[in-house]
Specification:
By secondary structure, chain A is an all-beta fold. Chain A has no helices and eleven strands. Chain B has no helices and nine strands. In chain B, the strands form two sheets. Chain B has a five-stranded mixed β-sheet with strand order 1-9-8-3-4, with no helix packed on it. A four-stranded antiparallel β-sheet of chain B has the order 2-7-6-5, with no helix packed on it. The chains are: A mainly beta, B mainly beta. At the A-B interface, β5 and β10 of A face β4 of B.
Chain lengths: 114, 112
């Protein structure tokens, strides 16, 4: 299995621009998570899906962030407009339902907003 | 989810066992202990988890005390590639709270 795939791996953009991060979960996993990691805040959950439906997006700034999962093998996290404080590493993770689920993380997308 | 306490940093000589402690004195009966690690610039990696019995897999062993208020992750023969931040997480395995809450973890440095 290729594991969780994220693209792009690095993104540099200017403030105000739209940024789209992409994630392909592990096949068969029905949960998908988007996390953000910064030095100041550590790893924090933004949103997660179960069977393509948003289960919890309380950690996501609703005014500029949006997350979608149009099918079981693809999810996007969009930031519009981007701001310098959005600079972080964004991780996608997936897991399958069951007792003792473990999450498998992708390599992350390093976003720098200038 | 129960709160965990870990030392901020530890050193270990290469080839020796690394023993990483975690306190979780408020753990409830149906909460699991999970260990993840994050090697610099990579995504977190699952290591092992357990409920009450000791567990072992190809990466590590997890020792949970009888009262479940603390645990120790053991890397039996640490290598330089084991240098990472190790996170101890206590959470329900199922239920509405499915996110992982990462604390500050322990920075393990394996020395040559």
């Amino acid at each position: 299995d290729a594991g969780v795939i994220q693209s792009p791996r690095h993104e540099v953009t200017e403030m105000g621009q739209e940024v789209t991060l992409r994630c392909k979960p592990i096949s068969g996993h029905d949960y998908l998570f988007w996390y953000r990691q910064t030095m100041m805040q550590g790893l924090e959950l933004l949103v997660y899906f179960n069977n393509k439906a948003v289960m919890d997006d309380s950690g996501m700034p609703k005014d500029r962030f949006s997350a979608k999962m149009p099918n079981a093998s693809f999810s996007t996290l969009k930031i519009q407009p981007s701001e310098p404080r959005d600079s972080a590493v964004y991780f996608c993770a997936s897991t399958e339902q069951g007792i003792g689920e473990t999450q498998y993380f992708g390599p992350g997308t390093r976003l720098l907003v200038l | 989810d129960a709160k965990t306490t870990q030392p901020p940093s530890m050193d270990c000589a290469e080839g020796r066992a690394a023993n990483l402690p975690c306190n979780h004195s408020t753990i409830s009966g149906n909460e699991y202990v999970y260990w993840y690690r994050q090697i610099h610039s990579q995504g977190p990696q699952y290591i092992i988890h357990g409920l009450k019995n000791n567990e072992t897999n190809e990466m590590a062993s997890l020792i949970i005390t009888e009262d479940r208020k603390s645990s120790t992750l053991i890397l039996p023969h640490a290598t330089l590639r084991d240098t990472a931040v190790y996170y101890c997480i206590v959470r329900l395995a199922t239920g509405s709270a499915r996110q992982l809450t990462f604390g500050s973890g322990t920075q393990l440095t394996v020395l040559p």
